[in-house]
Amino acid sequence: MNDMTSIKTTPKDWETDQEVRWCPGCGDYAILKAVQRTMPEIGARPENTVFVSGIGCSSRFPYYMETYGFHTIHGRAPAVATGVKLANPDLDVWIITGDGDALSIGGNHTMHLLRRNLNCQVLLFNNEIYGLTKGQYSPTSRVGTRSPSTPLGSVDTPANPCAFALGSGARFVARGIDIHKNLGAMLKAAYQHQGAAFCEIFQNCIVYNDDVFAPFAAKPNAATSQLWVDHGKPLVFAGGTKGLAFDTDALALKVVDIVDGDVSGIMVHDQTNRSLAHMLVDMRFGEFPMALGVIYDDPAPTFDSAVITQNVQASAGKKPDLQKLLSQGQTWQVDKQPRVE
Amino acid sequence: MATAAHEVTPAEASANPPAESIVVRFAGDSGDGMQLTGGQFTLSTALAGNDLATFPDFPAEIRAPQGTLFGVSAFQINFGSTAIETAGDAPDVLVAMNPAALKTNVQALKPGGLIIADEGEFGDRNLTKAKYAANPLTDGSLAKWQLMSFNISQLTLDAVKPFGLGNKEALRCKNMWTLGLALWMFDRDRQPIVDWLTAKFAKAPTLAEANIAALNAGHAYGETAELAGPMKQHHVAVAPAEEGLWRTVTGADAISLGLVAGTQLASIPMFFGGYPITPASAILHSLSRLKEYGVTTFQAEDEIAAIASAIGASYAGQLGVTSSSGPGIALKGEAMGLAIMTELPLVIVNSQRGGPSTGLPTKTEQSDLYQAVYGRNGDAPMPVIAARSAADCFDCAIEAVRIATQYMTPVMLLTDGYIANAAEPWKVPDVADYEPFPVRYCDTVPDGGFQPYARDDKLARPWARPGTPGLLHRIGGIEKAQGTGNIDYSSENHQAMTDVRKAKVDNIVVPDQQVELGDTSGKLAIVGWGSTFGPIHQAVRRARKRGLDVAHIHIRHIWPMPQNMAVLLRGFEHILVPEMNTGQLKTVLRDQFLVDAKPLNKVSGQPFKIAEIEAAIDGYFDAADPT
Questions:
Q1: Which of B277, B307, B327, B465 is the most buried (most CB within 10 A)?
Q2: Which member of B245, B269, B293 has the closest CB to residue A327?
Q3: Handedness of CA B133, B139, B140, B146 (dihedral sign)
Q4: Is the ipTM of this complex over 0.90?
Q5: What is the CATH number of domain A11-212+301-305?
């Protein structure tokens, strides 16, 4: 996010005339709506906004946003976005990617985008499956996932997107759910963060991996299993009856009951605490709730500003003179002379 | 010389072989500083007014184990008073800093040539490492050459003794001692080297003084030794050259300068995305120092990110440039397809090296022509330009920028390891001689509305930058509808879009093919491309001098080919294509023009020798009845 010059737009202004081609009931629709609702609220300008995506169901996203958009190649959206942003740092750059796109074929680029801290937003739609290629297991699929390529169940340990992001040096890590009302607030926080803002969005693939997130995303389970973190507030869930405390012997978080609303032993969320962020994203679901919201937000200098600053400093006081440049180095003058035949 | 600007006079052309040229090869351990010695000798030679061509030949290992055969690094220079176009077939002088250097290089030396050897390095240990059963300096096995051996190591140690360096540091001055001797042999001025050493070791004045002392000692040794044996001073006359300002330039320098010049002529900033790879890294290095020319450089995490970031920058309105060598170019293939599909300008520089796979990282080859012309999925037409020499890289880079920005297309520029590293004199061009070709972005909504895939008379689509109100649009690698650019997989649309992508590239206006030497029709045409220019040109010149009906055609525009190419080629009875590959241009010529082009191939990692091409020419003529 750069330019705070806000103009009035409505969600409608952010819709294209293109027919949306996702499966009926796909979680992508909810995310698209949330983004289109958020853009007017943050005062973004369509002509100043670029959506860059890779390949996969989620990566069709740019075609449906009335902005500039670039549907690139599998896994490479972070690299293309880096070129866009360095060429014009005034643009708002959003990267749309999926679990296979960002963590498998494009894992390398995701890592380097985050450690460089390019000022952009990364929305990773995690559905724990390869949808567009018809349902193979993905790098985030849980062990035992049955798919066309793993008919007996997958055997490899999945990647944890938020842990990957933190490990790569991300300065903003958030988690949301496609259909949850809080998604807009998370997108806003991501936009306001200066630097690479990494958002994992649990997205339901209704065809190949339906209800894989139901244990915490489904309405009946939400209250007991979702922990929405909030900076400066105690880490509580289950209607305020449970919370997270720090076990000093185990150097780990533990779930404790809250009696009579007494939160004195409960940890208070500090979104600038990197160690806490690591523990929150690493909590094993079941034993622990699912941590959601802005888990980590601690800005650091951005790559694009550093590059531009260096370019400006290196050019300061130098007048580009092509003729002079060509004439540099060890030169010698040949005078007009009769040829020796 | 291989500069395009140089007009060869009949007198020069009649030199057979060039009377006034000398080939010197410096060979030593890869840690001995031979490339540095060669580079500085080149500079002093250029300053002395000789024409020259060089051939740095070094191992892939940075510091290979000392004394080994595979760790030998060599630098060859051919200089003289006539036009020099190759680094020379066979050296007249070989400087061998150790037994391994002697063993790997002596067979190339001309019979009767001079060997200068550091006998201090010819101990049992080094002889064993070089697999010599007996000391060649004393067993008579070098009898067909002249041999001057003396203890350069000890002489250097003596010369730098006053400076109190450690043994290892003191021995590092050996290359300057050797350079001093070479400067004496060819009557070169020491001052530029002294200035260079003073500047290089500004922070360590003792090292500067020690190196200068070694340089002077080597020079003095030559003077003294002249009295005894084959050591004698050579005077090589100044080569005729056009009046004006001259400098030495390597292909990598010239590419960088040409890209800067091109983007200045196009009035747009440049974004260079690169990833370290031999021998292409030098372009990244030099451009990263030219930020004041509107250049942003980005060392990406891999080859794919390098090109992808360049494509992103092009989308945002800068000229994206990326460079690599064969293996990296292979990785970039999918992204090139994206640039073709999205019709964005992009320049891809391929400094070719020996392949396949890692191949010969530091050796030269021209074996990526198929990859450049055909190496992508789908029907993916892309213009390809090949530079013939270090100096020619400048004009070729400008041409690549012109085509990329005027036609909204990626362009591949081919050089090779030989061109990238070799230095040659270059007459500094006058910037005013180049016609600007300013880019015209689409900045406002045209009459009738904006269409991202509308076409101009060159079939190029508009370049509309993000940030521009009213021109919002989406592009991508998926097939686009004509005009709107919306997703469209319909059969008639794909046919039409495939046809228009091909037509756009086919119709790129490139200059007519000229004949470098000889007539526009006749018995035999030698058709080359890239860095084989020098040996082909010399071989054809020599053959013509003997009255043979042979012409030299050298192709810069590999794709699309010049319009007159078909007629030109069909005017010759025979076509011979010398290439440092197994016959790639030959196949393209056969395919495009149905001509019976014959191959002459060499893939040894070394450039062609003039004599090799001359022998092939002779095969087309009855010895008893030339022409």
A1: B307
A2: B245
A3: positive
A4: yes
A5: 3.40.50.970
